[in-house]
Amino acid sequence: MQIFANNHKATATALLVLAGITMAGCSNSNRPALTEPVQVKAAETTPAKGDTDDMTAANESPAPTEYNKLTPDEERIIVGKGTERPFVGEYTDLHDAGTFVCRRCNAPLYSSKQKFESHCGWPSFDDELPGAVRKDLDLDGMRTEILCENCGGHLGHVFAGEGFTKKNIRHCVNSKSMKFYPEGTPLPPVVKKAE
């Protein structure tokens, strides 16, 4: 593979030098002289068979169009609007700095700065990131359901008037509806499903 690449580059260079000499010798008053060297771009060369998959993976990062694969329990909660048991969620007692994103589509939902201890058994937040959460009347007709604005995945419910924080709001969120990224960690690309 390396020998082929070196021979290919040498051949391309020789052709370019020859073309430059020929153009310089054939120039006329209507054609500008070749003053800058011609460069062959990597994309113009033909890769050896079997190398195309590696090049595509290294050079292209297409935006994902399929939601993240969910476990059956995550799907029961996010798609089926279920609830995980209290006091067992992986983020209930988490106090690290960072960002919580939707487990289904990676859309940022909450900052750790908005998280507080409510002792209710689920992660609690007194606000969402701007434009991240949609609020709908729950199927029970009494509570307010919260969903990811981007993909519509079920997050939990929001309650007002409990007095836990100055904002007097509590987003009660299932841990399985989110993924946590510590502060300083790059967030994954948001999945915008193809329409």
Q: Biggest sheet, in brief?
A: 6 strands, antiparallel
The helix count comes to: 3
As a percent range, the share of strand residues is 15-25%
Say which CATH homologous superfamily of the largest domain is assigned. Answer: Peptide methionine sulfoxide reductase
The helical percent reads 10-25%
Using the CA coordinates, give the radius of gyration: 28 Å
Shape: globular
Give an overview of the whole structure.
By secondary structure, the protein is an alpha+beta fold. It has 2 domains: 2-59, no CATH class; 72-182, Peptide methionine sulfoxide reductase (Metal Binding Protein, Guanine Nucleotide Exchange Factor, Chain A, Beta Complex). The protein is 20% helix and 21% strand.
For this entry, give a set of tags.
195 residues, Metal Binding Protein, Guanine Nucleotide Exchange Factor, Chain A, three-stranded antiparallel sheet, globular
Summarize the structure.
The protein is an alpha+beta fold and 195 residues long.
Please render the helix and strand layout as text.
Elements: H1 2-25, H2 52-59, H3 72-78, E1 98-102, E2 108-111, E3 115-116, E4 124-125, E5 133-137, E6 144-148, E7 154-160, E8 169-173, E9 178-182
Antiparallel strand pairs: 1-2, 1-9, 3-4, 4-8, 5-6, 6-7, 7-8
